Amino acid sequence: MDYIQAIIIAIVEGLTEYLPISSTAHMGFTAALLGMEETEYLKMFQVSIQFGAILSIVVLYWKKFFDINNLQLYLKLAIAVIPALVLGKLFDDKIEAVLGNQIAISSVLVLGGVLLLFVDKWFKNPVITDEKDIPIKKALIIGFWQCLAMMPGTSRSAASIIGGLTQGLSRKAAAEFSFFLAVPTMLAVTVYSVFVKTWGEGTANAQKGYEMILENNQTITAFVIGNVVAFIVALIAVKTFISVLTKYGFKVWGWYRIIIGIGLLIFFWQQ
Hints:
By secondary structure, the chain is an all-alpha fold. The protein is 74% helix and 1% strand. The protein is built from 15 helices and two strands. The two termini are 21 Å apart.
């Protein structure tokens, strides 16, 4: 992976991580367009640069994250992230196996898009407009909804936002809680991918994520550049998403997923 490729992949990650359109599908397509080989390093890189995207949420919402009078937020997030931690560990091998199946990912992208077309009609009367009013039980339920995103192509953001809507949250409140929940979830995934998971296990080139990152100066620099770029782009994307979501709802994202998903299916079917 050269630096230009790292920057492009990171831009795609930053743009799509918090949108309900699946960053996994977009990064996979981008890598294919760039002619990049589906290596273990590429898979690890796509996961590890989520750290930069995580930091963007902490910076944008620092007043809420560091509000000592709102310790309930930490409790809600700690409970809501448990399902993802447990199920993510149990199904790690199956999730990794699907990561290379672009046909399956593209199909899920289309199906998720169809679902988003109807979301605004299903949830018209929210009763919770602020994160502080979310009960712990509802936070846990949203955490289970987030687990649907373990199927690559689903979109963690879409799953958790829809989960929030089912619990009576407004669009904005559901989106913001989804962002907050992403911090412990993605941090755990990043730490696991870099320090715990053995990539290419069972092969002659099995390595931990950090071993691949520290292999040479280029891999180190690509990792740093990727996280910095993902951080900057995510800052812009999150602000834009909240504005568009509040004004137009989910239908625009649904049509986007359907059109892009069909395009990806055609592209990968011909490979």
